[in-house]
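Message: Study each token:
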Amino acid sequence: MPIVYGVDIVGKNGEALYKSKRNLTSQTPNGDFSYVFDVKYSFEGKEVPLARVTLHSSDEIIFERTKVGFFMLLISALIKSAALVILFYLAFSRYLKKPLDRLTKQVSAIKDKGYGGEHIDAGFKDKNELSMLQESFNDLLEHIRTQEEAKTQIVSEQNKLLETEVHRRTKELRKSELRHRVIFEESA
């Protein structure tokens, strides 16, 4: 939709060289305005007038052209926004969702099976927040392993002390039983 709907070219002597006007939707355009300029040629240091050009337009045409331009900008912005949303989703899915799912599955597997000395390896190649989270989980698991080993050692030592105490009391009980038997046999 061109902005200019008519062109008049008048020669230097005032004769009409060219006249053209397109039909518009309305017979007489609202807010008709014109732009006039002279066409000149430089010859031997002097400017020789050749013609006067008048371009006709209307605010209706400019408004329609602006509406079309605005509509095209709106469509372009919507397409770009949709593309950005799709790219964001794909990047989010690839770089955050999938690695978090792997990390969650490994942590859940350790929780379900009980800690058996495993470490989490979700396959993070880059040094980023997720790999740091994985390292923190592994540090926590190492701390839990150390605590469990310490508890196992304490329980083992307590069991040894209890066994020693049971053996000592069993010996004392046998000695006491033997003394009672001897006393009982002497009195009988």
Summary: Residues 74 and 112 are 53 Å apart (CA to CA). Strands lie at 6-11, 16-21, 32-43, 46-58. The chain has a mean pLDDT of 86. The two ends are 135 Å apart (CA to CA).
